[in-house]
Amino acid sequence: MRPYSGQVSTNTGAANGSTSEPTAPKQRIGLVFAGLLVAMLLGSLDQMVFSTALPTIVGELHGVEHMLWVTTAYLVASTIMMPIYGKVGDLVGHKWIYLGALAIFLVGSVIGGLAPSMVWLIVGRAVQGIGGGGLMILSQAIIADVVPVRERSKYMGLMGGVFGVASVVGPLLGGWFTSGIGWRWAFWMNLPLGLLAMILAAVFLKAPGRRSELKLDVWGIVTMAAAVTSVILVTSWGGTTFAWTSWVIIGLVAVAVCSTVALVWVERRAAEPILPPHLFTSRNFVLATLAGMALGVAMFGTVSYLPTYLQMVTGVSATESGLMMVAMIGGLIIMATLTGQLAARTGRYKWMPILGMVVMAIALALMSTLTTSSSVTLIVFYLFLVGVGIGLGQQILVLIVQNAFPDSEVGTATAANNFFREIGASLGGAAVGAIFTSRLTALLAERLPSGSTVDVNSLTPASLKTFTDAVRTVVVGAYNDALTPIFLMLVPLIVVGLVLAISLKEVPLRTSHDTSNAADSAELTEATEANPT
């Protein structure tokens, strides 16, 4: 692969043997970055916005039996596309691949907005996912084209807050659209924002030349797609649509295992693998990716059930529960921004994910002590601590991965990191959901008065109001006692993440763009990690 030198970069010297280029105007960088944030927000929102709108959508389109596919189609498509966008972007340049991903995402939004049936809605969501898988990956890769690693930390902090914002704003927007102007606006809102992101990138982002001949890793894509689809279907269907011991789930697990083995075999022989084996020879890549997975599982396990918990246990409305979750987002954004600034100024960063794991463990332990009588103020404070823990570590871990490889492989490395974090979050979310549902079912069976029948799958804040006071008290108590111990169960996972973070080597963040050949990536990584000073 030919060395790549971006059209826009900053440099204060010839550190690390890289060449220098004129510094890009800050205004141009700011406009490009604004567009990247919008694109990342769109990709993140569309994983969350339909959670509150689905009951209305399936009722209107008469497709309750296909309801799960509205979210699963997007998740499967976007996860599969992550490594593909990362690799192709590194080979041919990020700008035009990014614009193509945005265009595909908007086409999917139009299909979904016009969908006359559930089949077309699912098609629209799948097309959205094909484009959406590249929005977050390519946004992080493009900012790497614009600024070197050390300066990049200032921007990565804000990027880290995007998904947290989407996790809270998405369900609120979905509910607001559904009860107001209509759920189709969850699709239509993407058009003006997506076009704005495209214009900013097309005008202000300088296009690099072609980097290398495109050699598509077809068999790697096929085996990876089979593995991803199987894993996500297991996590989506297991314990709900199908029993964990059913032949469907067992068969999907077998497909996942076999296709993963085949993927490893194929990638070791591919000319341009989408998941290059040499990534895993980097100590920092492996440690940062695993630590990010641990943090991601804890984040998803917390965020997935807390809004409903707040409504069921404290009695607040859906809007109020969303506003309470803002405390977590505030902690995340404040700390992600602060750590980014500190990393750029001092070049020191290893302490950030270490402290993040400690704070996260403390926050989860505190949340496990919540009771039905806990004050809203106390819950909000604990949520803020969760956000602080995530903000301290999440994006710094991505930055560590990017710093472990030359800029010619930044898309591939970032995509692999996000890919495994997404898989880990899916598995972790499924595990948390299975444990919670099992505990809730058992507690209700144990505590409900004789003759009372409460369907766990039908429990909602609205249905809770139809129960008698005695039954309502039991349900609220069972809901609390089923969920809060799970927070404590997540603490050992964060402790593992802490050990991984402590084991990281603090390789100095590059202060200029690295133009090393991608073929030299493993040697560069090994050398810098062996001699961090």
Structure commentary:
The structure is a single chain. The chain is mainly α and 533 residues long. It has a domain of 194 residues: MFS general substrate transporter like domains (Growth Hormone, Chain: A), CATH 1.20.1250. Helix content is 72%, strand content 0%. The chain has 20 helices and no strands. Helix 3 packs antiparallel against helix 16, helix 6 crosses helix 15 and helix 15 packs antiparallel against helix 16. It is globular. The N terminus and C terminus are likely disordered.
Structural class: mainly alpha
Order of helices and strands: HHHHHHHHHHHHHHHHHHHH
Major beta sheet summary: none
Look at the structure and name the CATH superfamily of the domain at 24-217. Answer: MFS general substrate transporter like domains
CATH architecture level-2 label of the domain at 24-217: Up-down Bundle
Q: Low-confidence parts, pLDDT < 50 over ≥5 residues?
A: 1-23, 517-533
| Fraction of helical residues | over 70%
Radius of gyration from the alpha-carbon trace, in angstroms? 23 Å
Mean pLDDT, rounded to whole units? 81
CATH third-tier fold name of the domain at 24-217: Growth Hormone, Chain: A
Shape: globular
